[in-house]
Amino acid sequence: MTGAGWRSRTSRKGERIMNTLWALLHDPNMRWIFISCTLLGLSSGVIGCFSYLRKQSLMGDTLAHAALPGICIAFMLTGTKSILYFLIGAGLAGVVATFGIGLITRHSRIKHDSAMGIVLSGFFGLGIVLLTIVQHGGYGNQAGLDKFLFGQAASMIGSDVLTLSIVSLFLITICYFLFKQFKLVSFDPGFAKGIGYSVGFYEQLLMLLMVVAVVVGIQAVGVILVASLIITPAVSARYWTDRLGVMVAVSGVFGAISGATGAIVSSTASSLPTGPLTVLAATALFVLSLLFGSKRGLLIRRLVQQRMKRRLGFAYEEQAATASVDERINKEAAL
């Protein structure tokens, strides 16, 4: 194939993709789903920065798996697939899981990460049992409940999209106005306590915001993978900057790109769940950050190391040449 033919085929393929995306975004339902998933990714990336800095990455995964029995119980009690009821049920389950972790660590010698693993597996096992009971029981309108495992943004209705968007904007607003307090609590809780901040209150507030971020993203991303949307953008952003404000902004952008990508691709191919596609997009951004990040990227670091070695080599050669000249002058003076 000639170069002109290859360029022509590539141009036509790109044009078809753009036309498909344009047609999707002209669909009102798809447009709202796209906006809500973008806001979800943005808020998850922002919240994830504080969770990552406080070394609580596994907590998001624990809360996500703990939310499944809360969702099933909410459906069994109400008989409707309303994201508002699911949000309440999953939130209560997340609170119970958090208290369970604290209870285990306070009254036993089990470490925090082991306690989270116990709670994660126990709650998720209970959720799978309840989900099986719902699907094989006499409950009506249970079709599609299994979408909460891997997420399906295209299955959301107008009220779901509205609730998700409002909660995501609420999370972003809280982080914006309490950024200074969250920064101090994350980096130096001792200093924050010394200047009068209620460290315990802000730590619990951050935990509550993480619970809300996990629960609200379950329908779009799924129980199993929603934690990745919280942690992966934050880890990726760490490779680009050393400043927390910039890191939060970059993490939010990465999360928004991941959420938007997952929503668009899953809507074009109805058999593909949103969660895995969103996580794959976030993982691709992480790989790019790992290689090309301006602060900690592997390739950038390699280039900096080679440049430093070259400079040190030049300096050593110059120093050796100077020493040789001085030695020759001293010998001539001795003669």
Question: What this model shows, in words?
Answer:
The chain is mainly α and 335 residues long. It has one domain: ABC transporter involved in vitamin B12 uptake, BtuC. 82% of the residues lie in helices and 0% in strands. It has 15 helices and no strands. Helix 4 (83-106) packs antiparallel against helix 5 (112-136), helix 7 (158-177) packs antiparallel against helix 10 and helix 12 (226-238) packs parallel to helix 14. The longest helix is centred in the C-terminal third of the chain and has 37 residues, at 298-334. The radius of gyration is 26 Å and the shape is globular. The model has no long low-confidence stretch (mean pLDDT 79).
Sketch the major β-sheet. Answer: none
Order of helices and strands: HHHHHHHHHHHHHHH
Binned strand content? under 5%
Share of residues in helices: over 70%
Return residue spans where pLDDT drops below 50 for at least 5 consecutive residues.
none
Looking at the structure, the CATH topology is ABC transporter involved in vitamin B12 uptake, BtuC
Regarding quaternary structure, what we see is single chain
Structural category: mainly alpha
How many individual domains? 1
Query: Span from first to last CA?
Result: 78 Å
Instruction: Round the Cα radius of gyration to an integer and report it.
Output: 26 Å
Treating each run of at least 4 consecutive H or I residues as one helix, how many helices? 15
* Number of extended strands: 0
